[in-house]
Sequence to fold (299 residues):
Amino acid sequence: MGTLFRILLYAPGEPEARGAATAAFERIEELDQRLSDYRSDSELMRACRKASERPVIVSRDLFLVLENALHFSRLSGGAFDITVKPLVELWRRARQTKQLPNAQAIAGARERVGYRKVLLNPMTRSVRLRTEGVKLDLGGIAKGYAADEALKTLEEHGIQRALIDAGGDLRLGEPPPGKNGWTVTLENAHLADAAAEQQFVLHNTAIATSSDAYQFVEIDGIRYSHIVDPATGLGMRDARMVTVLASDAMTADALATTLSVLAPEKGLELVRKIQGVEARVVRHSGGKREYFASRNFPP
Fold:
């Protein structure tokens, strides 16, 4: 899925550790083959090529992730949108060439973007795309699902004390022996003072972060993020770091992306509607730093 997965675990002995870790990585590889847009032969990419012509029956994993993706799209009014890939591709090129996409290119890409173009049929477990050329990108949700499934696989092998790191999105099981939880250090690359680092002690939960500290382009004095607003087709212009705590990594992953697009106040309003979720947004705009946090986010 274009990132590095890492597993930390505690086991009675090396054979148990190796067996469980191997099974978990095999599950991650299986999901990479199904959900990744970095592989032209993945199940997701094969479905994209056919689903505008006819409904395509897909695996339970892919259907479940698509169902959840559309749930977060509806919940966020389209701020989370797995069809945004045509716009993302334009802004990837913009970061390489240091040139803004022209208005015609953005308009053309936007015609192929919109979560309502994805139709799911639970009875047949199939997906249909309303428009030819729609491209699906599960980068904002699939890593979280894979982390959840990796931990579940470890638990099936008798391993309870484990941490799954899916490119910075963490799924945490029972604490290490003798500890209250896993110590997670959150760094904010936008900040240069003591507030740049925060520690959490967590277990049986998930934490995801989204930041544009390293992926952006500056053109004519304006900073554009790699995170694209589906509503405008433009890269976000305020620098943000979003942190989400949730009971599962798929939810944390999707909401971290969502809150990177929504206005912070609207994002936190959305968070308040979802049980067991807390979030913080640090926004940098016009030389100012602003903090927005849900009620029970750790201070």
About this structure: The chain is about 35% helix and 25% strand. Residues 168-293 form a domain with the T-fold fold (CATH 3.10.520.10). Helices lie at 14-35, 43-50, 60-75, 85-97, 103-110, 142-156, 249-258, 264-272.
